Sequence to fold (397 residues):
Amino acid sequence: MTTLDSALPAPPVPDRVPLKRWLGVVAVAVGTFSVVTVEQLPVGLLTSVGGSLEVSEGTAGLMVTVPGLVASATAPILPVAIGRLDRRIVLLGLIVLTVLANLMSALAPTFPVLLAARFLVGISIGGFWALAAGIAVRLVPEKYVPQATALTFGGATAANVLGVPAGTLIGGLTDWRVAFAAVGGLGLLVVIALFLLLPTIPATQPVRLRTLAEQLRNPAVRVGIISTFLLVSGHFAAFTFVSPILQAIAGIDSGLIGPLLLAFGVAGIVGNFIVGSVAARNLRATVITISVLLAAVLALFPLVGGNTVGGVSLLIMWGLAFGGVPVSVQTWILRAAGQSAEAATALNTSVFNLAIALGALFGGIVADNVAIAGVLWFGAILAVLTSLAVARVRKPA
Fold:
């Protein structure tokens, strides 16, 4: 998610940020929009892909599992592998890889070929996030970093609200192959934007494996990474089952789930930018507040979400709370890591992807062996643990 790590201090950035610098941040945000859309696009296309390539929907689900696991492994490895290479070139190369992987997906004659393309997507996702999210530090003055980081993460949130539904709609109206091709076309536009708007982003001191290990010995970085794991896994343990939660607990008709998830996504975008604007003032208090709010929403859902009004209200609050999680934790990581932000962010990216997979896995175990409400309690417990962990450490400088 960044390119700051052990790099030379960026060329002096004036207090007044030139428009081209902000446009560069926007280009990175569109890049995150693109890679997150690519990552989650198969969710809405499983049935059509499975029918076309003669595999079960469960097997087709590997199109989501494989890139997630690959991204988790790629995020910490890629910054080590690229050494001193200009981060701008790396970002361009990763988006080009995404474009090629989507073209390969659109033309895949068999499911194994499609799965190989999704493997390449995982490399692109993990690598792009490991370098991109902290690029704001290199493009804008320090006081604007939370806003720029929020903009970058806003691209990921917007992908869930707009990108994935749009891709699913395209696939439904035409063919799943057209949907993959369309997202590949978006990637080409991102390549052009990054090429025109990003300055050279050198790294004079490459990340090494020992640099990654050293970050875990930094108490503030360690707490930031733990916070990511707890909040993200807690959220996805519950959110993976949001449809049955809304139907079984709130009594909401299945036909309203889609519009309500759109509202959840919009609330997430709002939460992202609200937190981006306030995080600079008191970062520790911001992370604790988000953790407590998320815990309260999840814990209260089985108790007061048993009707349409309560369920919808809590769902919107849930979106607001989780929308602020990525930007707040990433800002924490950037401040805590200092000159090693690239290494710390790579670790955080890896943990983020791992938390998604494990959260959904353990949420499924709880749902199958306890009750659907159990996933909400489970997520609430992890969010509370986050606030306790953050409260015990000094806030990053």
User: Anything to note?
Assistant: The two ends are 20 Å apart (CA to CA). Confidence is low (pLDDT under 50) at residues 1-13. The chain is about 80% helix and 0% strand. The domain at 209-391 is CATH 1.20.1250.20 (Growth Hormone; Chain: A;).
